[in-house]
Amino acid sequence: MSTLLPSRTQAASPAAFTDRHIGIGPDAQAHMLDVVGYDSVEALVETAVPASIHVQPRASSEIPVAATEAEALAELRELATANRSARPMIGLGYYDTLTPSVISRNVLENPSWYTAYTPYQPEISQGRLEALINFQTMVTDLTGLATANASMLDESTAVVEGMLVARRASKAKTDVFLVDVDALPQTKALLHHRAAAVGIRIVETAFEGELPEAFGAFVQYPGATGRIWDFSAVADAVHAHGGLVVAAADLLALTLLRSPGALGADVAVGTTQRFGVPLGFGGPHAGYMAVRAGLERQLPGRLVGVSQDAVGAPAYRLSLQTREQHIRREKATSNICTAQVLLAVMAAMYAVYHGPDGLRAIATRVAQKADALASALRSSELNLASDAFFDTVRVHVPGRAQDVVDRARDRGYQLLWVDDATVGVSVDETTTDADLLAVLEAFGLASEDLPAGEALRGIDDALHRDDEYLTHPVFHAHRSETAMMRYLKSLADRDYALDRGMIPLGSCTMKLNAATEMAAVSWPEFSRVHPFAPEADVRGYLEMIEQLERWLAEVTGYDAVSLQPNAGSQGELAGLLAIRGYHLANGDAERTVCLIPSSAHGTNAASAILAGMKVVVVACDEAGNVDLGDLRAKIAQHAAELSALMITYPSTHGVYEHDVLEITQAVHDAGGQVYVDGANLNALLGFARFGDLGGDVSHLNLHKTFAIPHGGGGPGVGPVAAKAHLAPFLPSHPFSQRAEHAGGVFDGGPVSAAPHGSAGILPISWAYVRMMGAEGLRQATAAAVLSANYIAARLREHYPVLYAGEGGLVAHECILDLRPLKEQTGVTVDDVAKRLIDYGFHAPTMSFPVAGTLMVEPTESEDLVELDRFVDAMIAIKHEALAVAAGEWPADDNPLVNAPHTAETVVVGEWEHPYSRETAVYPVRSLVRGKYWPPVRRIDQAYGDRNLVCSCPPPEAFA
């Protein structure tokens, strides 16, 4: 018997985390190996993984021996206490906030919300889709624009996306984009870095005098200095040249100020962080984007809309998906393939709970306290940068700035050092009068009382908001905690997440997100830390980040890792920008061609375009591997201009390519670099390393292989790992606390708003690696490969497994070909996916990477009972399809085409179908006591696109 997987014979060691994480024990393992036809797990994995890329377990490792859950939490506590507790008043788009406990407990800490997947199966995602409709409505109401998407990654990346929308939609014949000199500094740094790759010229301006012709202009409202001004005349001037105006706006300020739409903005972007989402040392937070009417189809990212189901009832779904990167590929204008759903839900529910009056009251208190502080400073003859502000004041203290900041820090406050003569102070909803008095002491002003503050005292009345917002009943109906708790519970009950059952999505790795891994995310020492806090205040965070970077470098075979990218798409882009920077530094500006296999993820091509590269597609052979002949021909054709090859390993088709070393060597011989997409690392970890395959750079998905939950479609973390020669081109950041990441060793320019991206969820992956240890990570891979091959073996006679490698084995996922079933029975892949809901399952990945197929990935976390339940459901569905083919049920009226079946379906009205109610909703008896009931019937996708509605429908629509 194999000893590779946990033996579970050590009854005296129940705290071994690996035993908790991996679902299959020794008895299950023996049974599965018998079905697959191997004597041991070692033999199975060594056959599946090409011998040429095997690595042996290291004699010594950077990764410590696996800790118990209690030990890992204790070590995290030590790291947390190394972060100095301080009140952040730095601002620059990041603010302390009060997360209502009902939201923290019932959303952030609730697996019904954080273990859900992207709502591509909308019938079982109605709860989070409604929450996202609330988010979109909140954003459109406050920005005064027509349509908002379901969230962005952060404010700065949203600004970049706004710039790209403007370029695409503008009629101006110029490559100039105007940028407000008062923009957030991290946003300006990101704009310069991203614009250079796509040939956009950034021109910073104070918007005074005559403006140059530009395809767009970006304004910050309020500005980084706190200044508030009427930019409507600038909008008119930009529009006169055919350009578009992008405004980054603070949503809390917009409860008191005129909306960007009212001032002429075409696009509004920003962050919803201060709506109850903790700071988390920079993330994750939900950015936002809203556009005026006519720009809906230019929106990047995901967009939730209202459609109807099979009986005409209103139902939510993702709208206009044909504009997304996974379909448009190299024609995409954005590579954003995710949202920050969990954080968007929190922000939306903050607005639902407080309502317009509550938000306005919070904003008024913030503005009053800022004015009280400003009045006290002015009374002491200190000059301010602006008299028109909402929450931020810049104070002139010639020659004393560092002293003021140091004095504040001694009192437990973090202020912004702007320059030797200027200090910035930002207040938020947590700020008290005692805080303001302590800040005044730091400026050398002793006082026992504050002046009475007046909200928006220095702002022209014409900029005061006078229109209504958040008028929909959802923002008025849940004021008590009882009502809010029940609303959140009702939404969660409409969804399917990992707390209900397996989500066997190929390419997505929906593994266990253990409670111990999640615990530290809510600790204030991690959650209430500003991303630009001084190094001395964040030593615990920096130590944790350094450890995680070292661990990831070791398991991938690379020399350097940056955790800054806050999504897989951003990690891809960072890696490709590093390759671009490397070629430019070597004087090879002509190297712009990126070779990408036809099977690749849609983000690959989109990321290459955004990195300034030209995509050339490489064919795949009948086995699903890269066609070596076509690859060599493309290399020869583009040898002088070859920049990179992007490949996924194991391949997107779910097999280990035996020729991978030959592939990477051919690219290197031609002077190119190799980008290995890390999406499928869960099939490799501990057995092979990207760096040893010939990879020069990779992104990793911590929300796949390293246990960060998907959160209903975000958050994610997409670190970029590289060999030493590319390390100088990895992401830097102007506010990085570490010199090597602030233009030192890493000098590639930022790809995210915060120096360390979504650092607030890094404790999850740190805890996962710490509790698994190097051997546990290897065991997880083995279990995932065994489980995938078990499913493939059991289903092969019912559904052809499309691709396989050595010995007929797959990697960690398998592709089931449903096209023969459709030809034989007329039953489609959609029918099977929707019927799986009736059996209590989330469907596997549909029609990717091959149309008419299902890609199944069980992960290592599922036990044999759940694996068999899925296999049995798929076999039963095959028999149902054959019954249709045999004429037992009509082709247009059977359990498959009518799936999924709601409770209403079987209890209301006469039953007129040729199959029984029991067949409809209880196809197996085990469902009788544990049935998941979908809230809607099958959704009409086309109707929602023809009748685009992307905000909350009126209550009578559900009557």
Automatic annotation (TrEMBL):
It comes from the Bacteria. Keywords: Oxidoreductase, Pyridoxal phosphate. Residues 19-443, 475-731 form the Glycine cleavage system P-protein N-terminal domain. Its cofactor is pyridoxal 5'-phosphate. Residues 780-901 form the Glycine dehydrogenase C-terminal domain. Its EC number is 1.4.4.2. One of its GO terms (molecular function) is glycine dehydrogenase (decarboxylating) activity. The modification N6-(pyridoxal phosphate)lysine is found at residue 704. It catalyses: N(6)-[(R)-lipoyl]-L-lysyl-[glycine-cleavage complex H protein] + glycine + H(+) = N(6)-[(R)-S(8)-aminomethyldihydrolipoyl]-L-lysyl-[glycine-cleavage complex H protein] + CO2. SUPFAM superfamilies: PLP-dependent transferases. It holds the Pfam family GDC-P. It is an enzyme of class 1 (oxidoreductase). InterPro entries: GcvP, GDC-P_C, GDC-P_N, GDC_P, PyrdxlP-dep_Trfase, PyrdxlP-dep_Trfase_major, PyrdxlP-dep_Trfase_small. The glycine cleavage system catalyzes the degradation of glycine. The P protein binds the alpha-amino group of glycine through its pyridoxal phosphate cofactor; CO(2) is released and the remaining methylamine moiety is then transferred to the lipoamide cofactor of the H protein. Belongs to the GcvP family. HAMAP family: GcvP. The glycine cleavage system is composed of four proteins: P, T, L and H. This is Glycine dehydrogenase (decarboxylating). It comes from Microbacterium phycohabitans. The lineage of its organism: Bacteria, Bacillati, Actinomycetota, Actinomycetes, Micrococcales.
